[in-house]
Write a structure and sequence with these properties.
This protein is mainly beta. Among the domains are: 2-98, Carboxypeptidase-like, regulatory domain (Immunoglobulin-like); 690-695 and 705-714 and 722-826, no CATH class. It contains seven helices and 54 strands. The strands form twelve sheets. The protein has a 25-stranded antiparallel sheet that branches. Strands 9-14-15-12-13 form a five-stranded mixed sheet. A hairpin with a 2-residue loop joins strand 50 and strand 51 (850-859). The two termini are 34 Å apart.
């Protein structure tokens, strides 16, 4: 009876809260010492499961019935604050300034986020509202295109196939981090955005630090650093459902939920995403899930645990091969690019025009052969099976499938008023790969480029003669589809200690340890009508008859062991803040070839010595007044070479004394914000040198055998100007502008020598590169962006973005310029302009705690035709009939994606 009585009372109390007049409590939480907005601080009502966590701007808000309450604000690393007997009779704005123990420990500290008016680096912040308003389910780098010196494209248009360049450096030289954990590939530094397909839906903020950045991990980044911070666990119970629709049957559903702060101690947040679509470009379909989980637990007033997990199991069709521009649009090639009729005749326009993709073709639905692929939600490389292909009516030559979950456990601890410790232990697994053809495929040459004729290939595999009419065993496949697999795991530990020597002088020191193992192999994906495929690639097991899932061609295991440490000091007094840091790291690679025999008859191995690298950087900021400040910084980095510059994983050859690449960087900048907050300006200049760039190349040795040479000594210089401005003349209008002017080029020819390893007595051979004065390609060296946002009525936001690019030289391989007579610049891509439109409207319906929003995006509003990616002097798609090189008709390109839309509704509850 007593229990039932309590239940009735609780029910009546809950009902009274539901129907009572509610008011909004909102405000900002900042550091009392620095004025910095605190992200993820908890503001809650004592004794009730009502509250909220601060967002990326340090702001919070929640609704509460009228009454008298105690409101508490807490954040690890700061003294908690509480306000007693707060009478709620109207909407209330309540700001908190928390007293700093020593440092504000949170995931943003791990990510080394730059602070306004303090950190002396060039950076740009994008908050959650900006990401949600402008991303529109594109790959997450695309939302950064209005940032100075940043260039991102969707390449061939496949989901997750984006790439990003900063200041003329590709993403191998841009450190990408999620919640402070580096996600660049441990072997080559690349980032595969399809692995992080759902991170945009869980993003709290993104910060781009250009140049050497303020990051103190052993992750050198000459282009810049991209810090993605996911949503903190919310202290308020609630959730959100978002439904999106787009071109080519695109459908995406997103559900997020927050437990709210329970017992003033712990909270849980989760996001689940499902995405499908046929793809804007032919056969670039997508079938993807994404998930995010966050949990926090306050052990006591000085210790907090956080757990984050996210992943994006996915499969998608790819458009991997760029084409001659005429194959996409002959009118554009003739009128804009200046093609001759002969060049147009060589590359006829594809029937699907701009949507053309050579990596797929129709197949008879009578062919029901299965394909070997990983299970979408599998967590290991062995979780694979024979499955039906994506579509019974066609086969993709190139398909990507991968699942790379990342889990990190964070521990924030305030050991004393002067000493804080932050530690994260993380794991990132990964399994999947990409598909392609192998063997004697029958090709169809009736399109601008060859495409696989699946039906004829299947018929040959089933029959008793190969495609040339020679006798073969019926059922023996001459051609197959293969998977190129990458199964990996990484375990890492990042630990940072922060010690406050005095109110003015703070220090930080820490370690960054990682170990990884990666298996590379090929396996049979689809026998294309046959029963087996004959293979001799395994020297330990020759003359095999392969079936689905069998490994072949190559099977290597690489390991990467990395450990580094750093020491940093920061001194602030009056208007000055000065910092300096030094870091050292070592990296150790090993290689095992499971298919080739070594000299001892066992597996071929390579075990090069560990390689050391280091970085030294520092800077200063001077606050001229309350509205403006200057900064300068400089740095020197000796970056350890990547795996491919140390070991050739085809032969096991180890580079002879591989050299570090050297980065030096100098920057100076100025920031201004008007007293009324209506004008903000940022400007900076930079000067960067990239010295001793390394690469490997295949050569012919003196005895005629094939060999590998490791080349270094290539130098380039990057300098430029970057400007950002924001103006809000009236509350209904905001104007954002950005400009970047770059001058990036190679500074000298290279006279390299290499050793012929076929005979120790052979003299060194020369390998000369002729690149002096040639411009760096792959990114426009001039970029302009303007964005106008208007708020015509309450709840409605309209935004138009104009992006203009100039001085864009096609990508080219500096290590291929071995002809002293070829001094011409790579092809210069025509200038182009793109316009995007975004809109969001909060529906003014009184639904209690439920809020509805409609939103929409139109990308490439004017349906402009332009070249977004270009490779100079294509080996496959160049017109050579006129004897001219480095021209438009010699390049292979991806055009910008045609006009597309994304619409949806968001329900917040």
């Amino acid at each position: 009876m007593t229990k039932m009585y309590k239940i009735i009372l609780l029910t009546l109390f809950a009902a009274s809260l539901t129907f009572a007049q509610t008011y909004k409590v909102s405000g900002t939480v900042t550091s009392q010492q620095t004025g910095e907005n605190l992200i993820g601080a908890n503001v809650y009502v004592k004794g009730l499961a009502i509250g909220a966590a601060t967002d990326a701007n340090g702001k919070y808000e929640f609704n509460i019935p009228s009454g008298s309450y105690t409101i508490i604000c807490s954040f690890i690393g700061f003294e908690a604050a509480q306000i007693l007997d707060v009478d709620i009779t109207n909407n209330l704005e309540l700001d908190f300034q928390l007293k700093d123990y020593a440092y504000s420990l949170s995931v943003t500290v791990l990510a080394d986020r730059a602070k306004e008016r303090e950190t002396p680096v060039a950076f740009t912040n994008l908050e959650k509202k900006d990401v949600e308003f402008k991303l529109g389910s594109q790959d997450i780098p695309m939302v950064l295109n209005t940032t100075p010196s940043v260039y991102a494209t969707m390449t061939g248009g496949g989901a997750g196939d984006a790439r990003i360049n900063i200041r003329g450096f590709d993403q191998r030289n841009v450190a990408i981090m999620i919640n402070g954990v580096p996600i660049n590939d441990m072997e080559n530094g690349w980032v595969y955005w399809s692995n992080w397909d759902g991170v945009g839906d869980a993003t709290s903020s993104i910060q781009i630090q250009r140049g050497l950045s303020a990051v103190n991990l052993a992750t050198p980044s000459i282009g810049g650093t991209m810090n993605v911070i996911t949503d903190p666990t919310a202290a308020k119970f609630g959730g959100r459902f978002k439904q999106e629709f787009g071109d080519a049957s695109f459908i995406k559903s997103t559900l997020s939920a927050n437990s709210g702060l329970i017992d003033d101690t712990w909270a849980v947040s989760a996001v689940i995403v499902k995405k499908t679509g046929n793809g804007l470009i032919d056969a670039t379909w997508t079938d993807a899930w994404a998930y995010y989980f966050g949990a926090s637990y306050n052990l006591n007033a000085t210790n907090r645990l956080e757990l984050y997990a996210l992943g994006a199991p996915q499969r998608h069709g790819q458009n991997s091969y760029a084409q001659n521009a005429a194959a996409y649009n002959q009118k554009y090639a003739r009128e804009v690019l200046g093609y001759s009729q002969a060049a147009l005749d060589k590359f006829p326009q594809a029937s699907s025009g701009r949507f053309y993709n050579e990596t797929w073709n129709n197949v008879s639905s009578d062919y029901t052969g299965q394909q070997w692929t990983t299970n979408l939600f599998g967590f290991s490389g062995s979780s694979a099976s024979a499955q039906d292909r994506h579509d019974p009516d066609f086969i993709n030559e190139r398909e990507n499938f991968f699942h790379k979950p990342i889990v990190n456990l964070n521990w924030y601890s305030t050991l004393s008023n002067n000493l804080n410790l932050y530690t994260t232990l993380y794991y990132s697994g990964g399994h999947g790969g990409g598909t392609g053809t192998f063997g004697d495929i029958t090709w169809d040459y009736n399109s601008p480029s060859r495409i696989a004729d699946w039906n004829k290939t299947i018929a040959v595999n089933r029959g008793s003669a190969d495609r040339k009419g020679n006798a073969k065993t019926a059922g023996e496949s001459n051609a197959i589809l293969r998977n190129s697999r990458n199964d990996q795991w990484t375990v890492g530990l990042i630990s940072k200690a922060y010690y406050k020597i005095s109110d003015n002088f703070k220090t930080s020191f820490g370690i960054d340890w990682r170990t990884a193992e990666i298996d590379h192999y090929r396996e049979v994906r689809d026998l294309l009508g046959g029963n087996y495929y004959s293979d001799n690639s395994d020297e330990f097991n020759p003359n095999r008859k392969l079936v689905l899932g069998d490994k072949f061609n190559y099977y290597n295991t690489n390991t990467v062991d990395w450990i580094g440490g750093y020491l940093q000091g920061e001194y602030s007094e009056d208007r000055w803040t000065v910092y300096g840091m030094g870091g050292y790291s070592t990296i150790k690679y090993t290689f095992v070839d499971h298919f080739q025999k070594g000299p001892d008859g066992g597996e071929l191995t390579a075990d090069p010595a560990a390689i050391g690298g280091y970085q030294v950087k520092g800077g200063a900021s001077f606050r001229v007044s309350n509205v403006s400040d200057f900064f300068v910084n400089a740095g020197y980095v000796a970056k350890s070479p990547i795996f491919d510059q140390v070991v050739d994983d085809g032969t096991g050859i180890i580079a002879n004394d591989p050299a570090n690449e050297i980065f030096t960087n100098y920057e100076a900048g100025w920031n201004y914000r008007s007293p009324d907050g209506k004008v903000a300006l940022k400007g900076n200049v930079y000067y960067t040198l990239w010295l001793d760039r390394s690469n490997s190349r295949g050569v012919q040795n003196l005895d005629g055998s094939e060999g590998i040479v490791f080349i270094n000594g290539l130098d380039s210089r990057h300098y430029g100007l970057e400007v950002e401005a924001a103006l809000a003349p009236i509350k209904e209008v905001r104007l954002d502008l950005s400009m970047s002017l770059g001058n990036w080029k190679y500074t000298s020819d290279v006279n390299a020598k290499y050793r012929d390893y076929s005979d120790a007595n052979n003299p060194d051979q020369e390998y000369n590169l002729y690149v002096d004065g040639l411009r760096v390609g792959d990114q426009p060296q001039t970029g302009l962006a303007a964005s106008v946002t208007v708020f015509p009525v309450k709840g409605l936001s309209l935004n138009g973005v104009v992006k203009h690019y100039r001085q864009y030289y096609a990508n080219w391989d500096a290590f291929s310029r071995t002809n002293p007579l070829d001094r011409q610049q790579s092809w210069k891509v025509p200038d182009y302009t793109v316009v995007d439109l975004h809109a969001a409207y909060d529906i003014p319906l009184d639904l209690g705690s439920v809020n509805l929003q409609l939103f929409g995006h139109v990308f490439n509003l004017l349906d402009a035709i332009y070249v977004q990616d270009a490779l100079d002097n294509s080996a496959f798609n160049a017109y050579t009939g006129n004897g001219v090189t480095h021209a438009a008709d010699d390049a292979e390109v991806f055009l910008g994606l045609p006009r597309s839309f994304n619409l949806g509704i968001s329900i917040l509850f």
